[in-house]
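Dear Dr. L.,

I hope this message finds you well. Following up on our conversation about the binding site, I have prepared a predicted three-dimensional model of the protein together with 4-nitrophenyl phosphate. For your records, I am including the exact sequence and ligand specification that went into the calculation, followed by the structure tokens. Please feel free to forward this to your student if that is useful.
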Amino acid sequence: MVKVLFVCLGNICRSPLAEGVFRAMVEDAGLGEHFSIDSAGTGSWHIGDPPDSRMIETARKNQIDLTGLRGRQFSRKDYGEFDYILAMDQSNLATITQRAPSTETGSTVALFRTFDPIPGDYAVPDPYYGGPSGFDVVFEIVSRTSARLLHELIELHGLEGSLRDKEQ
Ligand code: 4NP
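The resulting structure of the complex is given below.
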């Protein structure tokens, strides 16, 4: 089982979208049983909240349903529990790193956009205080990066033989 956690600040915009998009791609590839996927925020403001309505709407336009997701806060316990802890921006990464236990946990911590074929500044821009177009930009970045991430993890974990046969 490959365990992946996406982390942003609020867990209501960027990381729930990444969770929903990546899960849809995993399911589409027939790999659902091989992955455990979750998201969290470094902040505590939105614990228990559904994703931002603007993010839900952008996802819905792209056939991704985020309505069942609820915010939770990233915790030190997530280390060791997840194989990959992927931060949406440098600030999230710094907070995650500060909360790391002193002993080695086995979790790989990285910027999500390390996997983006067009990584830019390696940050997924926070759309929370911007206009609606920011949510479409985030969707583009997240879907492009998730596709490459899945491709890399399939190779790294030898899952090619478990892929759904697209010819059928
Ligand atoms: P997110 O966006 O980190 O992509 O979920 C934010 C949502 C809420 C807040 C900040 C960022 N906030 O400060 O409440």
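In brief: The chain has a mean pLDDT of 96.

With kind regards,
A. P.
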